[in-house]
Amino acid sequence: MKGRESGMPQKEMWETFFDPKALLKTMGIDNRVQDVVEFGCGYGTFTIPAAQLIRGTVYAIDIEKEMIEQAANEAAVRGLHNIKTLLRDFMLEGTGLSNDSVDYVMLFNILHIERPEIMLNESFRILRHNGKLGIIHWNHDPATPRGPSMNIRPTPEMCIQWAKKAGFVKQELHDLKPYHYGIVLKKGDSK
Ligand SMILES: C[S@@+](CC[C@H](N)C(=O)[O-])C[C@H]1O[C@@H](n2cnc3c(N)ncnc32)[C@H](O)[C@@H]1O
């Protein structure tokens, strides 16, 4: 089931809202990271630079065939062989990845959809011990040029509370100017 208000505007417009490589570095994605999963990769705005920064594989999941094709095509054009695209509904089917098998999960612009705990519990399951969860989302401010409706747009405090409930420990909060915030959490020892 595709999450509410998770469609994308035109790629050209979407990509004016971020500096993806700089944002990823701030969020702790660099060459010390092995394998990464992105829930809802969209055009691959963050998938592509993540694959260029890390050592292992980026698993890019999306429910939309068109998004998966665009991300895969972009990877091919750039000669990147460490992106594995997965056409899949992560709400109904999960990620299909093994327990304790990845180092970083990206939940980028997605935690406003229904049942955020499903994504957070699945993230906790697939992350290795000391693995990281990165959440970014639109500022809780109606003046942002895009973003989900304010009544479903989570605040950083809400995201942190949900993630802690899933077992994560908060590490960092970032102001990702101009329109986003970022939260980095760690998979703690036990739930
Ligand atoms: C707002 S976009 C964010 C894309 C990307 N993370 C970014 O920040 O550029 C959300 C993406 O999640 C995908 N999506 C929504 N519900 C999904 C589901 N249940 N399973 C897999 N993908 C889903 C949408 O198709 C869309 O491409």
UniProtKB/TrEMBL annotation:
<dbReference type="InterPro" id="IPR053173">
    <property type="entry name" value="SAM-binding_MTase"/>
</dbReference>
<dbReference type="GO" id="GO:0032259">
    <property type="term" value="P:methylation"/>
</dbReference>
<dbReference type="GO" id="GO:0008168">
    <property type="term" value="F:methyltransferase activity"/>
</dbReference>
<feature type="domain" description="Methyltransferase">
    <location>
        <begin position="36"/>
        <end position="145"/>
    </location>
</feature>
<dbReference type="InterPro" id="IPR025714">
    <property type="entry name" value="Methyltranfer_dom"/>
</dbReference>
<protein>
    <submittedName>
        <fullName>Class I SAM-dependent methyltransferase</fullName>
    </submittedName>
</protein>
<dbReference type="Pfam" id="PF13847">
    <property type="entry name" value="Methyltransf_31"/>
</dbReference>
<dbReference type="InterPro" id="IPR029063">
    <property type="entry name" value="SAM-dependent_MTases_sf"/>
</dbReference>
<keyword id="KW-0808">Transferase</keyword>
<keyword id="KW-0489">Methyltransferase</keyword>
